[in-house]
Amino acid sequence: MNLMEHQGKELFRRAGIPVPRGQHAASPEDAGNFVSANSGEWVIKAQVLMGGRGKAGKVKFAKSADETRAVAQEIMATPMPPNRQNPKGEPVNSVLVEEKLPIVKEAYLAIAIDRTTKSPVIMVSPFGGMDIEEVAEKHPGSIAKFFVNTAIGYSPFIGRELAFKAGLDPGYRKAFPAIVGGVYDLFFRYGAKLIEINPLVLTTDGRVFASDAKVELDDDALYKNPEFKKWEETLPLDEDEKLAAQAGLGTRNFRRFDGNVGTIANGAGLAMATMDAVKNAGGNFANFLDVGGGANAERVRNCYELVVNHTGAKVMFINIFGGITRCDEVAKGIVEALNTTKSRKVPLVIRLTGTNEELGRKILADAKMTPVETMDEGAVRAVELVSA
Amino acid sequence: MSIFIDKNTKVIVQGITGSEGSYHTSRMLEYGTNILGGVTPGKGGQKSEHGLPVFDTVHDAVDATGATHTCIFVPPPFAADALFEAYDAGITFAVCITEGIPVHDVLRVVATTPGMRIIGPNCPGLISPGKSLIGIMPGHVFKEGNVGLVSRSGTLTYEVVDLLTRTGFGQSTCVGIGGDPIIGTTFVDCLREFANDRQTEALVLCGEIGGSDEEDAAAFIKEHLPAMPIVAFIGGRNAPPGKSLGHAGAIISGTFGTAQSKISAFEAAGVPVADRPSAIPGLLAQRMPATV
User: Fold this and answer.
1) What is the pLDDT of residue B5?
2) Which residues have CB under 8 Å from A161's CB, separation 6+?
3) What is the pLDDT of residues A280-309, one digit of tens each?
4) Nearest 5 degrees, angle CA A382-CA A385-CA A386?
5) I need a labelling partner for A64 at 20 to 30 A (CA). Which of A49, A134, B102, B266 fits?
6) How many structural domains are present in chain A?
């Protein structure tokens, strides 16, 4: 689960990480009212999960309540422009009003999980305010990393060492170790997969602030912090995840794509290989779907309906390897599912291999369905049907 | 030989009276796994439906049975605790089937249990065909032989093994290392063991997008196993970046973790990468004869 900036900053406050003074506002009126009670110069920032707010004109400055209302109105009037990962863009439902900081320097601080060392890695760069990928390209060698031994945990020397290694402006030094400690604390306290402060700002009067907040929480750890349920409801839902959950699947088990060959397989690895097989056969897959263990009739029907109702599938390739699951049971499930579904019918190609495969194929053949013997054959057949 | 487990391996099951644990204990016993008992807190002194003794704690189970290996079927919130308990009781090898354990729990466990090998979490376990099976793999698909296999997935592994078995390539040990971002045992850990195993004469590695385990494995092969016949497969070649596909670990971040990076690394190490599972036996046959 990715948090909005204002939610991330709420967590920062709990850990003592300094954030600019401000107010989260759900309407231009609220934003204006806050500014009328608090004079000064303010920055109005769209609260969205998508990146690139600045370039999209969704971060603007204001000096008065009226100006704040007008700017917030403008920011909220249109959604974030679409990009490759968010083809629909993202509506702006609220803004964050924050004091405009007199900035001297912008640095970068993040903590993530390093798979190779199996430890948290803290990353620091003196080049903040741009994507870390861009920093890595333009200033290779400027990113200092520290792999934390979780048995020891965080100790202030880690922050000092990182500041020296990254060559941070000396103005950061006093505040920095405690800020890194706060980030490390949040990382474990709330089960974060990523916490990024970009930029970490140094002001003309020598103060340090987290000017932005990017926090990704581990979905598997959300049960430990029931309060996040409330936050989750305010976040834009991932449509694919929502659909997967409605069909009784895990949120990671379904993804939609642009093609016209629907796929259903058991197991994530096999489901990915099934998509690859469709591509190898010269076709385009409409989705990724891992039906999970125990492909019974209800489950198969839910998955079938999920794909035909929500993707551009013109043909369905069902690819099941019966390991623990027996092929005859899966076959019965498929026949029953397709006899009882009220959704549109598309041609089916079914590949069943493994335990009791002959029995399974016979059940399908008796129901006038065409089973194939291998994954490659099934993919070729499905692609043929779509072109026919 | 074989790696990690053989017919003498003494195993207990944590969560033996739960539905998953109980069902798969039956399957493992059928396969011939030397399971000596199980643990379910509060049910100590009872017998499981398989007639095995149930203990309240892992300590009790280890004291009574001398088990060195455990298979863990407890729900995600309690899985880290189960692993710590196993470690404290002197277990040296833990197979953790549980899916959906918070990644920070896994980080804490792997950082603080030196000397205990963990397979998984979120894995199908491992099998030394004809000898022992710990986990949830369908034993009958496998056949004893000299090909070692390491894989990040479950059903895809069975698919590949089925293809190998049908084409005359039996297996020494097959390890499903799991699809999570943080796992106890990596490709390289398995390669180290296979390098010293006399039964294993060839290897099949089934990777997928995400992380850099496959790249690390390729580097290891280049340095330590240049003469071993090895074939690789990478699942998710056509997956777009930014979205996990099924496995939490199967995610491309920016340009990191792509199939192309893994394929290039294997090819640079002289390891051919099959473009589909069905091409694996053929590539293997070019490097070693099948023994039907």
Assistant:
1) 97
2) A146
3) 999 999 999 999 866 677 888 899 999 999
4) 90
5) A49
6) 3
**B221-B223-B229-B231 Cα dihedral, nearest 10 degrees:** 30
Are residues B115 and B23 located together in one domain of the fold?
yes
pLDDT digit string, tens, across residues A173-226: 999 999 999 999 999 999 999 999 999 999 999 999 999 999 999 999 999 999
Asked if A273's CB is within 8 angstroms of B159's CB, the reply is yes
Q: What domain count does chain B have?
A: 2
Question: What does the block give as tokens for A47?
Answer: 């609260």
The residue count for chain B:
292
| Final residue in a domain of this structure, among B92, B122, B152 | B122
Residue A51 belongs to a domain with what CATH number?
3.30.1490.20
Beta bridge partners of A319: A265, A351
CA distance A93 to chain B (A): 24
For residue A353, the model assigns a pLDDT of: 86
* CB–CB contact B237 A113 (8 Å): no
ipTM for this model: 0.88
Same domain, B118 and B152: no
Q: Do the domain assignments include residue B133?
A: no
Residue B128 lies in a domain: no
Token pair of B54 as six digits? 């149930």
Q: Taking CB atoms and an 8 Å cutoff, what residues of chain A touch B206?
A: 269
- Which residue in A152, A180, A150, A187 sits closest to A165, CA to CA? A180
Q: What is the rounded average pLDDT of the residues A60-89?
A: 92
Of B96, B122, B148, which marks where a domain is finished?
A: B122
Contact criterion met (CB < 8 Å) for B238 and A285? yes
Provide φ and ψ at B9, rounded to 5°.
Answer: -60, 125
Decide if A147 touches B, using CB distance below 8 A: no
* Cβ–Cβ under 8 Å, residues B11 and B126: no
- pLDDT the model gives residue B291: 58
Q: What is the pLDDT of residue A370?
A: 76
Amino acid at A25: A
- Same domain (yes/no): B79, B216: no
Half-sphere exposure (Cβ direction) of A278: Cα atoms closer than 13 Å: 35
Rounded CA gap, B117 and A60, in Å?
A: 54
A197 & A285 share domain: no
Domain boundary among A100, A122, A139: A100
Pick the residue from chain A with its C-alpha nearest to B251. A252
Six token digits for residue A89 = 């863009």
pTM of the model: 0.91
Same domain, residue pair B143 and B273: yes
Position A341 in a domain:
yes
The answer to whether residues B74 and B171 belong to one domain is no
pLDDT tens per residue, range B19-35: 989 999 999 999 999 99
Task: Find residue A140's DSSP bridge partners.
Answer: none
Whole-number CA gyration radius for chain A = 26
What average pLDDT score do residues A41-49 get?
A: 97
Q: Does A388 fall in a domain?
A: no
Please give the residue range of the domain that contains residue B60: 1-122
Same domain, A228 and A255: no
Give the 3-state secondary structure of residue A2. strand
- Residues of A with a known catalytic role: 108, 196
